[in-house]
Amino acid sequence: MLGIGLLGIALLLFIWWANAQVSSSTKNQLFDEIDQVPHHKVGMVLGTSKYLNGGQLNYYFTYRIEAAAELYHAGKIDFIVVSGDNSRENYNEPKDMEEALIERGVPKDHIYLDYAGFRTLDSVYRMQAIFNEDAFTIISQPFHNERAVYIANHLNLQTVGFNAQDVTRKYGFKTLLREKFARVKVILDHFIDKKPKYLGPQILIGEGLKQEKVE
């Protein structure tokens, strides 16, 4: 029994350490005020479902889209990558995000869709591997930005996070609880050098627009 108790304490301490490590090491790279955000060519919106299981609009989705559109219209980013899950029929996070951004005045040809952003690690990793961007702005809620920027730091990418409006603790309780364990997985993924399941052909952001201007 003593051994089990010590193991439990060690596990709790590791969870606490992982969460503290992710938060403390990224706090200077996250921004709440748009005026303070440095300019990057590309901003990446981390995916989430547009609707909850009961059919209600997902505030995480809405607030991320609003933050991305705000950054774009303020001239803080020139292009947007929407990275999310499209692994099931009739479920397409990138397409939903694209349509929502267009509704908010972002031109379609300034939006790029990443259909293989199944995990935050995949989304961050693919920004360099697929889209050839090693410096960019990550757009999500604060807790998610901390984890994404932490991943980027370990991949030697130069990123900042722009914090979308957060939700209430009551609304986001389950998400915040899952986040505790997601940060443990981030640490473990780093130790085993975890890679995305899918990569694919490279995409050069903005190249088509440059060619059109020359012609």
Automatic annotation (TrEMBL):
It is found in: Cell inner membrane. GO terms for cellular component: plasma membrane. It is a single-pass membrane protein. It comes from the Bacteria. Keywords: Cell inner membrane, Cell membrane, Membrane, Transmembrane, Transmembrane helix. Its main location: membrane. Residues 44-164 form the DUF218 domain. The keyword Cytoplasm does not apply. Participates in the barrier function of the cell envelope. This is Vancomycin high temperature exclusion protein. It comes from Myroides odoratus.
